[in-house]
Amino acid sequence: MTYTGWIIMTASLVGLSCGIIGVFLILRKMAMMADAISHTVLLGIVTAYLVTKELSGIHMLVGAIIAGLLTAFMVQWLHTLGVQEHASLGIVFTTLFAIGVILIATSVGNAHLDVKHALMGEITFIPWERMALPVIGEVPKATALLALIVMFVTFCIVAFYKEWKITTFDPALAASLGIPVVFMHYLFMCLVSVTTVASFDAVGAIMVVAMLITPAASAYLWTDRLSIMLLLSGSFGVIAAIAGYYIAAFMDTSISGSMAFATGLVFLFSFLFSPKHGLFASRGKLLKGNLKF
């Protein structure tokens, strides 16, 4: 596959994994948690580097998972103490992210890890070291990792589909049925953290947030069925990744930024033309309701 092909493939895997996870973030009204975790994982990554002195490996995922769980736990803890949830998110998000920034500035040194790289990202600049896989051949490590994450996320969603569905729409009913609601919540936070850090180095926090929220919000306008919403959201993430690449090529600008912009275009199209909740469909129904014969 060509260099361009690998870029599009890698970005599409980011869009697919983030799109699937994003559906539950939207339905659980936790969209801002995506923004918080996508930034606080920086602390986990920096801490993992300080311990191991390596910028790649499983320890990065472990550090990100711990940071994501710490974020979710601290937000929930402050909320139980009477702090409003959105205020809890703001407090935890800014504090943990600031600690990560301070550690980068004071302790990381000359390693290829900086705040601008973490926030903005640029898929063309990531290391493209290859690894050999049976049958497939040599593939970039970043692409292989993201493919593994997609399979892991898909497996978890399918294996616990009933539990995700009930705990998302009616946590009280789930608890009465014996479903471990708290465990499912923190398992979900693990999935968000793993997905975020796998995408983090390739595309940066801004595109991760865009891919986690916007495709799912777009899919929500098209259907009320969870299974269809998952398929649509993942597809919208892939479409945005492909379209964003060609927008960047045409305008000679940032690929990651263009892909994030493309998610906005997908949402705009959905907002206007969705047959279920689109603006034009709603106006049409209103006009029909006002017509008198």
TrEMBL record:
It is a multi-pass membrane protein. Gene3D superfamilies: ABC transporter involved in vitamin B12 uptake, BtuC (1.10.3470.10). It is found in: Cell membrane. Keywords: Cell membrane, Membrane, Transmembrane, Transmembrane helix, Transport. InterPro entries: ABC_BtuC-like, ABC_TroCD. Coiled coil: none annotated. One of its GO terms (biological process) is response to zinc ion. GO terms for cellular component: ATP-binding cassette (ABC) transporter complex. Belongs to the ABC-3 integral membrane protein family. This is Metal ABC transporter permease. The lineage of its organism: Bacteria, Bacillati, Bacillota, Bacilli, Bacillales.
